Amino acid sequence: MVAHFHQVLIGTTVFAGFAGFYFWYPKMFGRMLSERLGKLHFWFLFIGFWVTFVPQYLVGLKGMPRRVADYLSSNGWTGLNQLSTVGAFVIGFSFLFFFANLIQSWRKPVPAGDNPWTAGHSSGSPRPPRRTTTSPTCRRSARSGPRGTTTS
Questions:
Q1: Is 0.90 topped by the overall pTM?
Q2: What is the CA radius of gyration of the chain?
C-alpha cells in the first residue's frame, strides 16, 4: 500500500512536472538548459525512484505494516529499508544536476530562439504581434434581429 501510493504520486507528479519544466523553460526564459545535465538529472532521478520504491513493495510482502517508525532487526526488514533510503538519497542527489543546470543557464546563457525544439510545424512563439491600423468592423447579418436572434 505505501509503496504503491508513493510510487504513483512521485511517478506522476514529479516526472511530469520536470518534463513540463524542461519543455517550457526555453519558452519562458529564452535560454536553453544543458541537455547533458538534464539527462544526468533524469537518470539519477529515475534510478533513485526505482531503488526507493521497489524495496518498499518487498518489505510489504514480508509483512511490514504501515506507519512503522521502529522495528526489530530480527524482522528481516532492515536491509530493504536501508536500500530504500539509499534510493531516496540518490533522488536527492539528482536535484544537484537540476540546480547546476539552472545556474549554468543563467551564467552562460544559450539563446533559445523562436523554435528551441526545432519542431517543423511550429510557427514560433510567441506569435508576432498583429500589425494593423484599423479595427475590424462587426456587421450583423441581414436576417439577424436584436442581440443576434434570427428572424424569419
A1: no
A2: 27
